[in-house]
Amino acid sequence: MAMASSFQITLTLLGIIVATIGVAIYRLFLTPLARFPGPKLAALTGWYETYFDCIKKGRYWVEIEEMHKKYGPIVRISPWELHVDDADWNEPYKISSRVDKYHWYYKFVGSSAAAFGTADHDLHRVRRKAQQGYFTQDAVAQFDPQLRVITSKLSSWLEGFKGTGQPVNLSNAFRSLATDVATEYCFHKSYNLIDSPDFAASFQRAIRDFPQIGTWHRHFGLILDVFSAMPRWLVALIDPAGVSVLDFFNDIVSGTNTIVAAHKTSEAQLDNPNIIHRMLESPDLPAKDKAAWRLALEARTFVGAGTETTGNTLSVTTYHLLANPEKAERLKKEIQAANREAKRPLRYQELQQLPYLSSVVLEGLRISSSVAGRLPRINTREAIKYKDHVIPVGTPVSMTQKMIHDNPTIFPSPRTFMPERFLDPSERKRLERYVQPFGRGSRACLGIHLAYAELYCTLAMLFQSFDMNLFDTEREDLEQIRDFFSPFPESVKGLRVAIE
Ligand code: HEM
Fold first, then answer.
1. CA of 68 to the centre of ligand 1 (A)
2. ipTM of the complex
3. Which of 27, 181, 296, 304 is most deeply buried (CB count within 10 A of its CB)?
4. Which spans are transmembrane here (predicted)?
């Protein structure tokens, strides 16, 4: 019996060795992807990417940049995926191609049931259609008064710091503002994070752990499921600040449950439906997609997608303006002159017309590249071509916005903050198509108009009213070192300023 089992073990081991060699030969020489350039180790095993993502903590993007330097504009970055660095190529994102998202990559969000994480193109269309009308430019314009209330709160807090020499952490302030705006806009409920004296510093610190945890989940699975199953007392034991994040998301879930339950028993038309009501009433969404648990996932996604992105863009843009005081001064003068002429503070649509402010916003979006992820897509219908290369059907292909934003041929001195590059209208028109912070194609950002409104109104409020100086903040405190889909700097200090 013992003999038989050791024979079986030997046979199993032999089988594993032969299978491994077979897979290696296939990946290196036989698959259609074998003819694409790239490091052999990356072609051989997905553990190469796992190592850079998990052990080196979100550093695969640097590795990919190195691959492009060595192998050219198209590289094989894993046994399964190609990456392209070519600002003029849009093939993987063409709306008419009806491409899928790469399910494995988007596992990091922990929900393939919300539109953002939905892999299948057609299913995504249905889910997104039920949300689209809620995020139009007109809808955002009507939100102007509420947006003013939230930016005024920030302004009042900052007034209190004037002349004290006490540093204000604007990174936390901006993230709190973005959270309040997202929840007020989507659910008509502000969590008033902007009202907490330290701008919810520990909440913001704890919530920023999730992108890194999500990266581990992408590679190993289960991790986010374990987190969601954790009882509150255990979360409190591991990280007390995590409890406030847990309570926040639980409140969003219970708010959604309440709306869904009430919707089942009431026929009454609401005067002011929020996004949950709108999805419930959408004729496009099938009944199974109106289940409370799924709508709660959508709700969570709106907050997740709308906060770190906007918070980071505001932080990076403000940093660069303060590091270049003459640019901050020029911005201030432009806004103040426009206010004087209008005899009142400008509304969002009017702010958009200001040449320098609009250039600052564009340059801020470019230089911050607030989505660091490489946005892979899969064409399951036909092979696509990149120059002489034919990319087989079903191959994940990705491109990284930061590479386009940092391309020195398009944007000379790309890491220098130069709103001036957008001032000439024809030059702006030429360059604008390379500024793609909101993604491309059918999966492009749903909250783009809300994001623009936040950026314009917050920057205008800040720079017309306050004279600020950087406080113990260096460029490195804001620059992307890690890619956890959101860009992360090495330090956790954030943007700190003193207000004159
Ligand atoms: C400066 C701020 C923002 C930036 C740079 C940004 C960027 C992006 C990008 C690049 C994507 C596509 C991601 C992908 O292809 O996987 C995206 C998707 C999305 N964004 Fe934003 N975003 C911002 C603000 C917002 C806001 C304020 C909201 C709403 C509150 C929002 C909601 C969403 C949603 C729901 C999606 C998923 C769309 C879909 O798949 O149908 N975003 N965003």
1. 27
2. 0.99
3. 181
4. 6-30
